[in-house]
Amino acid sequence: MPSYDRPTTDTAQQTDTSADPALTGAGAGKDADGRDVTEAALFEAFGGVRGMVETVLPGLLFVTIFTVNKDLHVSAIAALAVSLVLAAVRLVRKDTVKHAFGGVFGVAFGVVFAMMTGNAKDFYLPGMIYTLGLSVAYIVTSLAGVPLIGLILGPVFKENLSWRTRNPGRKKAYTKASWAWGLILFAKCAILFPLYWWADTAQLGWVLIVLKIPPFLLAVYLTWVFLAKAPPPIDVFAEMEAAEKAAEERTAGDGPAAGAAAEAVAEGPPSPGPRHRR
What are the tens digits of pLDDT across the range 9-68? Predict the structure, then answer.
């Protein structure tokens, strides 16, 4: 650094040199911790690798069997059976079942719809409609100032809705992430819905399988990027616990103090005594 007409001693230079790396290292460590927490929370919210497998496997089994034998009933039953097995495994292991049961309900709707219409392509239609509705929800909630991704991830980060009023930088990140999810899912629907009308069941199925994971990973990655650069979440649960603890400590501390004050009032003012000058 230039001296600006004031000599800089060697000690000062050594202090500055040693301070900067320490501060830089602490900041880098804090940023790394924030990125790790964000990554872990995203994996928890979206199911991680296992959740992706549970999402893809039933549809993959359906389109594989149908491509081979063109039998709607066998394909549908096989897809529903494997989704039930995946959910049962989670139940036995006492894992989180929301992703597995979400897959079961999605497959069940597709099976019922395809059986009712007799059109194998309708196995995919409920999932496509759900994806379109989710895309619209992400976009609309972003425009309304209550981004859906914030509603999903707020409890995961233990911040609930504190980001809406107390953490504007985080709200901005959630809004960007919701826009990313909405536009990515809308682009996916823009590909799939024309294929629903023009392609056959096998072609639609394989394209849907191909588009299952990459758009999802892109949306998750962009969410991670936006949140990693955002301010850290406000842990409202920790705040509530701290407030309760402080209230208990005040109550415990006010008891003896209140008793002493009452005794002082009962005894009356102290009698005046001789005053000594130091």
Answer: 343 344 343 444 343 444 444 555 556 667 666 766 666 777 778 888 888 899 999 989
Sign of CA dihedral 91, 134, 235, 217: positive
Q: What is the pTM of this model?
A: 0.73
Rounded to whole angstroms, how far apart are CA atoms 199 and 191?
11
- Tell me how far apart the alpha carbons of residues 64 and 208 are, in angstroms, rounded to a whole number: 12
SS (H, E, C) the chain: CCCCCCCCCHHHHHHHHHHHHHHHHHHHHHHHHHHHHHHHHHHHHHCHHHHHHHHHHHHHHHHHHHHHHCCHHHHHHHHHHHHHHHHHHHHHHCCCCHHHHHHHHHHHHHHHHHHHHCCHHHHCHHHHHHHHHHHHHHHHHHHCCCCHHHHHHCCCCCCCCHHHHCCHHHHHHHHHHHHHHHHHHHHHHHHHHHHHHHCCHHHHHHHHHHCCCHHHHHHHHHHHHHHHCCCCCCCHHHHHHHHHHHHHHHHHHHHHHHHHHHHHHHHCCCCCCCCCCC
Q: Which two tokens stand for residue 190?
A: 């823009």
> Of 174, 182, 179, nearest to 226 (Cα)?
174
